[in-house]
Structure formats: C-alpha cells, structure tokens
Amino acid sequence: MALLSALRTSASGLQATSLRVNSAANNIVNINTDGYQATTVQQNTVRSGAYLGGDTAVMAQLIGTAQPPDLGQAFVRLIEADATYRANAKLFKTVSDISRDTLNTLA
To answer: N or C terminus: fewer CB in 10 A for the chain?
Structure first.
C-alpha cells in the first residue's frame, strides 16, 4: 500500500503545482492590466488519518495579493513547477516499474 500512498501524495502535489502554474500564467498575462492584483498560492502539507486514507497530501489555495504582478517571480514559479512536474513524473514511472516487476515476479 505504500506505493498507492506515494501516488496519492504525488497526485495532490501535482494539483497544487497546476494551481501555481495557472496563477503564474495569469500574473504574466495581466502584467500590463491596470488595477490587476497578483495572485499567489498558499500550500500546506496535511497529515491526517481521515484524509486520503491516512496519507500525506498537499493542499493549495489561490489567494489574492495587494501587489501588482512581478514578472520575475512569475517565471521563477514556472521554473519551480517544471521541476516539480519532472520529479513527479519520475515517481509515477518508478511506481509503475516496481508494480510491473512485482507482477512479473509473482507470475
């Protein structure tokens, strides 16, 4: 069951990263929009016996700021998201490989 737990944790992290990408993209698109206030994403790690069957999860919430968008910060967020997506893709591949090898061993 540890593999499923890792996948669920990774999936919740990917959802949080997706929200961060959308926030950064909106901030970039609206960089020259008068009165536009940047958004950011607040993330928290949740560990609970009741949540996702006792797994660890990443919870994310989009929040507004009172500041205009910062182009440099938005690009940093996109670079961070790229690294997060790559790491999670490797995790999914590793879990797939382990599952395949386990099934082949049992067969």
So the answer is: C
